[in-house]
Amino acid sequence: MDRQELERALIARHGAENQRKFAAASVGVAGLGGLGSHIAVHLARLGVGRLVLADFDQVDVTNLHRQHYFLPHLGRYKTQALVEQLRQINPYLKYEAHTVRVTADNACTLFRGCQVVCEAFDKAEEKAMMVQAVLTGLPDTLLVSGSGMAGTGSANAIHTRKAMGRLYLCGDGESDVAQGRGLMAPRVAVCAAHQATMVMRLLLGESQP
Fold first, then answer.
1. CA–CA distance, 95 with 205 (Å, rounded to integer)
2. 8 A C-beta contact, residue 149 and residue 173
3. Would 208 be classed as within a structural domain?
4. Which residues contact 157 (CB under 8 A, 6 or more apart)?
5. Cα–Cα distances in Å, from 44 out to 149, 161, 163?
6. Tens place of pLDDT per residue across the chain (209 aa)
7. Phi/psi class of residue 75: alpha, beta or left (left: φ > 0; alpha: ψ in -120 to 50)?
8. CA 57 to CA 145: how far, in whole Å?
9. Alpha-carbon gap, residue 64 to 43, rounded angstroms
10. How many domains does the chain contain in total?
11. CB contact at 8 A, 182 and 150
12. Which residues pair with 146 in a beta bridge?
């Protein structure tokens, strides 16, 4: 399939003006686990022109129950395994992969130029670091963060809210894997879809969840 054929298919489903905005957009995903890997897949399917992906980790067998990886990916860096999959969805997008741990020192450098960044970490302290880094160091960037998707509660409890001017939170706002609730594939995927949907809306100029 050539580029023009794929672009025509996206325009037919998304509309020409929407697709123009997606193709011109740059979005970052910090953390490529249960949230981030699914967010990236959704954004690639939208045809977002540039995806900046960062994660230091390798695919482990404990990832397979909820993350967008498969048995042949075991032992490979998540950046490599995910970009390989994304290119099978749309090879004409720009994928910028960074196999590094995102820190307060490098976050702004990694994601500079992104209109929106998705925070997709597991640990509360990493989430807080990312919120602080983006909101203070990237004044023109919007941040969509995951907050509460553990356990077996109803998917209806997961929602998106605008926490402040440039910060959006997706999740139930309460559940935490540290509480012993576990992470279940369907509920994590629902939260990831909320984050990707908020990114989509922001790229189209919608500021409300």
1. 23
2. no
3. no
4. 172
5. 23, 24, 26
6. 899 999 999 999 999 999 999 999 999 999 999 999 999 999 999 999 999 999 999 999 999 999 999 999 999 999 999 999 999 999 999 999 999 999 999 999 999 999 999 999 989 999 999 999 999 999 999 999 999 999 999 999 999 999 999 999 999 988 766 555 689 999 999 999 999 999 999 999 999 99
7. left
8. 20
9. 21
10. 1
11. yes
12. 170
Task: Please name which of 35, 196, 28 lies closest in space to residue 123, comparing C-alpha atoms.
Answer: 35
Local structure of 120: helix, strand or coil: coil
Rounded distance between C-alpha atoms, residue 109 and residue 117, angstroms: 12
Q: pTM of this prediction?
A: 0.96
10 Å Cβ neighbour count for 161?
14
> Domain holding 34: CATH number?
3.40.50.720
Tokens standing for residue 133: 């880094």
Residues 6+ apart with CB under 8 A from 182: 150, 151, 152
Burial class (CB in 10 A: 0-12, 13-18, 19+), 194: buried
C-alpha to C-alpha distance for 209 and 198, rounded to whole angstroms: 6
Q: Which domain holds residue 94?
A: 3-203
Residue 71 lies in a domain: yes
Contact 133, 107 (CB under 8 A): yes
